[in-house]
Amino acid sequence: MSESANVRLPVSADAHERERSYADVALRIGGLLDGETDWIAALSSVVAELKAAFAYFDWVGFYRLAEPGCLVVGPYQGGHGCLRIPLGRGVCGAAARTRQTQLVPDVTACVDHIACSSSTRSEIVVPLVTPNGRLLGVLDVDSDTADAFDRADQEGLEAIAADLARRFQDQHPL
Description:
Elements: H1 15-33, H2 39-53, E1 59-67, E2 70-77, E3 84-86, H3 90-98, E4 102-104, E5 122-129, E6 135-143, H4 151-167
Antiparallel strand pairs: 1-2, 1-6, 2-3, 4-5, 5-6
């Protein structure tokens, strides 16, 4: 494991530092997932890597499209998440519906934000879409710091989500 795995990147890190951290995390995730065939084990490993790498990631998890029209929590790290989110509600639902990343710098200004935690100030949600266009779920990251996420976070998380969706495009039951 690289030395950077032991250092959590602060929210004050610049874009270059964030890009370097995402590159390191992607390498570690690639090694962990090499040969892995279990969807839940893979998601759990990704959550653990992300939570360990970024100090401003206060809640990290997946909402899986485990039933039609509804995202179901898990795996995740942080406080309790909402158990189920209808596709028509919240930032996670918007990312799932539009299949586009939702970056919310100030959740208090977002009328459709679902407050699973009162301490959350910013959020980024990235859809997991297979190469053939099928939605598997979303990757949700919350921070207790306002405006915590930037372009480097968006690009890094989108790359991780795309890799997961490619690796597990045939594993998901829906």
